[in-house]
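User: Hi! I'm working on a homework problem where we have to compare a predicted structure to a textbook description. Could you give me the structure for the chain below?
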Amino acid sequence: MVALQVHFLLVPSLVSIMGAAQYVMQDAALLSYIDQRFLSLERRLEKCSQDLLEYVDEFRELSKAALARLARMSTDKAELEGEVENLLTRVERAQRDIDYFGSIMDSNACVEVHEDLLKQQLLEEAEEKKRLKLMLNASCDHMLAGIRSLKVVKKTGGKHGSWMKDPGKKHAKIYLLSGSVNNVILEFANIMAFMENNQTLKARRVPLPMPWEGTGHVIYQGFLFYHRHGSLNEIVKFHLQRRNVADQMLLPGAGRIPAYQLSPQTKIDLALDEQGLWALHAEPETGGNIVLTKINPVAMAVEHSWDTPCSSRDAEAAFMACNTLHVVYNSPSGGSSRIQCVYDVLGALNAHTNPGLHFPKRQGGHSSVHYNPKERQLFAWGDGSQIIYKLHTEQK
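Assistant: Happy to help. Predicted structure tokens:
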């Protein structure tokens, strides 16, 4: 009985001891696994460190080699540049020698070609001059020598305007165009009717279908020629008796800047002389110098143009007389008007200045100055006054 009790007491103890031994064996296995893993990691880290050191050494060697190669390339580049410069110098020297020998060999041929071109150019210039003389019917043998006197005919209208006769007609009618923009012409029977106090009541009113711009209009052979307001460079030919537009044309290059600096309202100034109808304007391409154009009034077409040396700076007006342009200058504040630039299109007179050719007995500016070739007088508009200047001429 006692033995049986002891057996029952020992069995639980043995079971407990066996369980504890089993747990100890499991822990030992776990520790062994962990130790192996750490050994593996340590070996891998050691290999990484060794590889990194090898990479660093390799990079240093490569850097040294690259720097040495670059240094050699820089030296080679300097030597190559020197050789190239030397070669270029030799090529340029050879080219100069070739050009020199070529010029010696071909000089006679070049002289012959240049002489032929010069002869051809002189021949063309002579033909052009002959054509211009025929076109202009060069019968003008007089030149302006002075302005002898003035007569203030009337004072009517504002600061800007123009008045004139028709030199192509036998009648003595006077035409008044007041203002720089308007569409009504006043026509008077003669100068006496114009001078009367109530002259506007007796005037014949001629309305225009399109208004004018500026003061550069002229009346010639029964037609009014004027720059149409609102257009850049359109010239209108208006029949005064039939009261209709007979023709129109465009004047190339005109209308962008004023013809005269002191008369900015006038972009195109039309003029008459013994040879007919002319147009005057300035262009930016000529530096503001005046461009002179001969117009065929029947065909309303350009016949010829000249770039003159006469500046539009400080100019207030201009007129044509016997194929010659006369530009009137003044000061911006107004003073004594003077003709300071003269240009003969046929070359009988060189373009020159004449500061002594002053307008007599008057101070102030001109809005317009028109030459009447029939009477050889100037019809001018100055500060609202209608003025006639008598001219003194002499042989060219």
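For your comparison, note the following. The CA atoms of residues 339 and 357 lie 6 Å apart. The chain has three helices and 20 strands. Good luck with the assignment!
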